[in-house]
Amino acid sequence: MFFAVWMLYAADRLLDTRSLDSQSRSEPHLEARHYFHHRHRTAFVAGILLTSVALAPLLLRLTTEAVHLYLILGGLLFGYFILIHATRSAHRFPKEIAVGIFFAAATFIPTVARQPGLRLALLLPAILFATLCSLNCLFIYAWEHDSQHVSTSGEHPAHATTRFALRHLPFFAKAIAVTGTLLALLDHHAPWSIALATTLSAIFLMLLHHRRHRIPALTLRAAADLALLTPILLIPFLYR
After folding, report:
1. By CB neighbour count within 10 A (0-12 exposed, 13-18 middle, 19+ buried), where does 177 fall?
2. Model confidence pLDDT, tens digit, residues 54-69
3. Rounded distance, CA 196 to CA 125, Å?
4. Any domain includes 202
5. What is the number of domains present in the chain?
6. Pick from 236, 30, 212, 204: which is nearest to 132 by CA?
7. Three-state helix/strand/coil letters over the chain
8. How far apart are CA 171 and CA 177, in angstroms?
9. How far apart are CA 110 and CA 20, in angstroms?
10. In terms of residue numbers, what domain contains 167?
11. Residue 17 counted as domain residue
12. pLDDT tens across 112-136, in order?
């Protein structure tokens, strides 16, 4: 998962900056991380190739059912990449929401492939986790842009779904926290740890949002991803 996600992230950043090869001017929709990938694109391409080699033997350890599910997900993801990069139609798709759906699906596939009986029990936790991942991307977008004046026109306008979510970020974060808490307490069929970890992450994101003006931009963005590591806090309680 680590190798695959890193490859997709790096490839996405490199595709975002491909226009810089033929243009000396800066692109207003690009952030510091995009320019970093562009400056070191040779190293990133080499890293992607080496990671592909390292990933190949790990794929052999997956179950046949997991491989089938990943092939379906990979086909959808490839089609999404084509739509947003080859057709220059990124503004027509809610990228932040798509990231949450794809990442959550990839995370749950190994478990539901090994134990199909858990698919229904894990459905709500998976949806909650997907919403949290999308919220993570939306918070970062809001911090990097003026969420009160997100562009609705021009070359790279924000998607309508993104604009709506940005106006209600605290509400969505609170909704995830409340839903996760209720799921952990009342749903005895789903693992309580997943719901509780999701709740903690949502709370951390809200705290970061509240203190966003006091934290440097790069630190704030890194802390948003760090907020998703809450499952580590629950490990001691899972093996008692």
Report:
1. buried
2. 988 888 888 899 999 9
3. 10
4. yes
5. 1
6. 204
7. CHHHHHHHHHHHHHHHCHHHHCCCCCCCCCCHHHHHHHHCHHHHHHHHHHHHHHHHHHHCCCCHHHHHHHHHHHHHHHHHHHHHHHCCCHHHCCHHHHHHHHHHHHHHHHHHHHCHHHCCCCHHHHHHHHHHHHHHHHHHHHHHCCHHHCCCCCCCCCCHHHHHHHCCHHHHHHHHHHHHHHHHHHCCCCCHHHHHHHHHHHHHHHHHHHCHHHCCHHHHHHHHHHHHHCHHHHHHHHCC
8. 10
9. 38
10. 62-238
11. no
12. 999 999 999 999 999 999 999 999 9
Tokens for 37, please give them: 């990938």
Cβ–Cβ under 8 Å, residues 11 and 48: yes
- Residue 18 resides in a domain: no
Band of pLDDT at residue 149, cut at 50, 70 and 90: very low
Is residue 16 in some structural domain? no
